[in-house]
Amino acid sequence: MKRKVGLFLLMVMTAITLGAAVVVSLVMYRLVSDKQAREISSLEVSLTDRFAIFETLLRSQHGRIKAHMEKVLPEIAAELASLGRDPVSLSANELNALTEKYGVEHIYFIDRSHKVFQTNLPGDMNLVFPDSPFTKFLDTVYGNGKVMSDGIDMSSLTGTLRTYSYYGPKDQNFIVETSTEIRESLSSGDFGWMGKYFFQDLFTDATRSNEYVKDLDIYLVAPSGAWSLLNVGRKLAPDVVERVAKTGRDEVVNPDGRHVTIYSRYASVAGLQKDDPISHKLVIRQITYDTGLAREAVIKVFLSSMAVLALMLPIVFWISSRLLQRQILDPLFNLRGEAAAIAEGDLEHNIANTDRRDEIGHLARSFDAMRSAVRNTIVDLKETNLSIERFVPRAFLAMIGKASIVSVNLGDNMRQEMTVLFSDIRNFTTLSEQMTPDENFAFINSYLQFMGPIIRDHNGFIDKYIGDAIMALFETADDALRASLAMLESLERFNVERQSTGLDPVSIGVGLNTGSLMLGTIGEKHRMDGTVISDAVNLASRIESLTKVYRVGILISQNTYDRLADPKAYDIRPIDVVVVKGKTQPVTLLEVFDLNNPAERSAKARTRDHLLSGVEALVRGDTKTARRYFEDSLALLPGDPAATNLLKSCD
Questions:
Q1: 3-state secondary structure 545-597
Q2: Domain boundaries, the chain
Q3: This prediction's pTM
Q4: pLDDT, tens digit, for every residue of 428-451?
Q5: Class of domain 394-564
Q6: 32-290, CATH topology level
C-alpha cells in the first residue's frame, strides 16, 4: 500500500510538472502559430494587391492586342480572298510571312468541325476542340464578319499566358485565329519594364524578405489545367483546384511535416465581369510557409521543463512522501479493513475511529453514513422493483428488449407474432348490480387471484385488466390454449368456494387469436403505459364476445388453430364462419370442447373431421362439397348448432 501511494504521489507530481510543461509549450506554440497565421494573412493581402496591379497591366495589354487584331484579322482574310488562296494550301513560309507582315505571333485556321486545319504552330496542327462552352463560342464566330475575343487563357501546349482573337469571314466556313504571348507582349509594349518586374521581382521579393516564406506562386485556371503565371510550365494538381474552387481555401502539409502550402482563391478587385479578359477566370494564390519555428519553440520550452523536473522532482518527492506517510497513510490503514468489509457486502459491520475529530474521523463517519445509506437504498430498491413488476410485467420489458423499467423510453416498440387471450365473466353487469362497490372489488380480486397465476404458469403475461376482463399475451398458441383450459378448470374450484358460502357460480368465455402485433409504450413525458396495438387484438376481443352467442367456453380463430403444434392433440372443431363486427373478411371460428362432459365430447369428436373438411371446401369456394360434409356431420349429430351454422354459411 505504501509503495502504491508513493508511486501514485510520484505519478501525480510528474503529471503536474509534465502538464505545466505541456501547457506552457502549447501557449508558446499558439503564440508563434498566431504570429505565423498573421504573416500568412498579410502575404495573401499583399499577393492580392500585387496581382490587382498585374490585372490592370493585363487589361490594358489585352485591349491593345485586341485593337490590333480587330484591324489586321480582316486584312489577312481579305488578302487571302484577293489572292484566291484556300488557307489549307498555304505553306509554312507563307504563314510565317503573314504573321510577320501583320504583326501576329501565331495564326490558326479552324473549320466547322472545330478542327485546326492550318497553322504555323506544328504542335497544334489537326487539333480538334471537344464540345464545350468554347466550341459554342466558336459557333457564334463563323461568318459573322466580326473580330471576337475569348479573353486571356493558358496555352495547353506551352503553359504560357496568351490572348486569343477570332475572325469569321463572311460566306466562309473557317475562322482565322491569332494568339499572342502575354509575357513577351508586355516586355515590348507600353509597360515593358513593369511587365518584366511583375514576372521577376514583384512576387519573389516576399521570399527574400521573409526567411519562413519558401515559395510564392500565382495560377490561372484554364480548361487545360491550372498553370503558373510566374514559373512557366508549372501546373497545379486538379484535386487542389477542385477544393479551392469549392471552399475558397485549402491547406496541404508537405511530406516533411515542416512546411505547409496554402492555396486560396483570388477575388478580382474589378468584380466578376463576363467580358473582362481576366476577372472571370479562377486565379489561385500559393504560399509555402515554414512552420518549423513553432515546433522549435515548443521543443525548447519542453526540454527546459524536463531539465527542471529532473533536478527538482527527487527532492520534492522525498519531502512529500514523508509528510504523506505520517499524516495520512498510517491512519488510513486502520480504515482499510472496514472499507474491505463494506466492499464485500457486509453492511452490518461497525466502522471504527468515528470519534476522531480530524479528517480521518470525518472519513470514518462518512463511511458509516455511506454504509447505512447503501443498506437502506438496497432495501428500498428491492421493494420498489417488486412494486413496479406488479404494474409492468417483466415479460413485457423483455419483449421490447429492455432489462428494466429504468431503460424504457416513450415510443419503444417491438413487432412480434403472439397469441392474444381475452376472457370475460358472463353477465357481470347484472352480477355487479347486486353488490356494493367494496363487494365488487373483493369479488374481482378473488377471481383474478385464481386466474393470474395460471397465465404466468403457462408462459404468458397479463397485459391489462379491463374491469372483470383479462387480456393476456403468449408467445405460442399452445401455451395460450393450455392456459385457457386451465382457467376453466380453475373456475370450477372458484365456483366451489362461492357455492360453499351460498353464492351463485359464475361462468366465463375465452377467445384466442394469433397474429402480428406491436408491443410498446404510449403516453407522454410524465405518464406512459405499456400497450399492444394490432388488429389481432381487436379480433381476439370480438371472438371472446361470440362465446356468449355460441354458448361455448373457448373459441379460437383459424389463425390460432393453424399455429398449434398438433391441433389433433386437442378437441377442436369448427363452429361457424362469420364476419365479426368491424371486419370485412369472414373468420372461421373453432370450438374447443376438451372440458365438455364425456358424452358431448364423444359426439362432437365424431363430427370434427367432417366439419374441418367442409370448412376447407367452403374457404376454397366449393360450397357444394362443403354442404355435403356439413349435412353428413348433421346426420351424425342431429340438431348440432355447429353444422347448422356452417350450412347457413354455404348460402
A1: HHHHHHCCCEEEEHHHHHCCCCHHHCCEEEEEEECCCCCCCCEEEEEECCCCC
A2: 32-290, 394-564
A3: 0.43
A4: 877 777 888 888 888 888 888 888
A5: alpha beta
A6: Beta-Lactamase (3.30.450)
